[in-house]
Amino acid sequence: MSARPSLEFFFFDAGGGHRSAATSLKKVIAEIYPGWDVTLVNLQDLLRPIDPFHRLLNIESQNIYNQALKKGFTYGGTAILTTLQTGIRYYRPKIEELLRRHWAQSAPDMVVSLIPNFNRVMFNALRAARPDVPYVTIMTDIADCPPHFWQEPQEQFLICGSAVAVQQAFSVGYNRDRVYQTSGMILKPGFYKPVTVDRRQKRQESGLDPDLPTALIMFGGNGSRDSIKILARLRKAGLNVQTIVMCGHNKVLQRALQKYPACHAVGFTENVADYMALADFFIGKPGPGSVSEALHMGLPVIIEESLRTMPQERYNAVWVRENGLGIAVPSFSEIASAVATMLDGETLSQLRRKALALNNRALYEIPDMMADILEKEGVVTSREILSSQTSPQNAYKVSPST
Prior knowledge:
Distance between the termini: 28 Å
Shape: globular
Number of helices: 18
Order of helices and strands: EHEHHHHHEHEEHEHEHEHEHEHEHEHHHH
CATH class of the largest domain: Alpha Beta
Structural class: alpha/beta
CATH topology of the largest domain: Rossmann fold
Largest sheet: 6 strands, parallel
Radius of gyration: 22 Å
């Protein structure tokens, strides 16, 4: 047993949400369980020696994916996913060897994966190197996208962010004592800080009307030129609405939006929650992170559900509709109609109440779930878990049998 357990969190930078989730969890664990050693590991760094794009073109595979997102080349999402999984199977012996070497040296007490597609090969490598070390997958998508995406039929632990994902796990063959359910997706700690901003004043400082309905438009960390098309359609429809557009690292987009009236363009920022606090509703792609952030801040969402939607994000639109949390459109060419519906009568206030009722506390639930697994697997005792805390276990723990 170890009084100071060491945990490795695996992530990669394809999309950005995986790193964000890992970083946020590490920060909160440092506050709740300061006796734990948490190391973040970028899987891309370990696999670089066998990455064909890096060896031949000096380009990271994950950067190709991110550029496709930035330019909106997502129609072939299913083909991209199939090609990636085929590549993983082809390189499986080499991937397992690299991981075995890593774990033989690092000797963690728990391995936590926050990435899809690689969980079978990672689990097999860990069993070969450290057969007694628990392996945990934390899903950063609302639901799985089978086969071989998040959930693999193997003796590991799984932390899900929805009842649908839990039922998927049971259908794969997971036992109830190995499946945990949180109340949502992992959010950054900043989203749990009290909102102290004066909305009217801050809107005025941003060049916006303090009383006009405000949409926050966001398409991830690289922005999207879809934002310009959306603004044009809203303006053509004559809707009495203004916008805050999150451009991320896309400085070209930010400069282009400066000429648009009733629009405040924002570059990359770590304070997305502050801008969401100024808005009334959200427009963007159905990514699990951005949708969860918006809903946590009480913003109903308007998202696209089409062939352009990445396979792993298609269920998100279904989830939004079924839970009455917003509007899914087949194309942003219909954005004006969707916004008009959102602003009609009591629709916005009704959707807002449903969003606020979600009460997503996943960020603070997961550390206690990990503590439960560490105790269950004999890594630490309950006495050692309690002695490593700075405060009593929080009130948001979810039973593994939920």
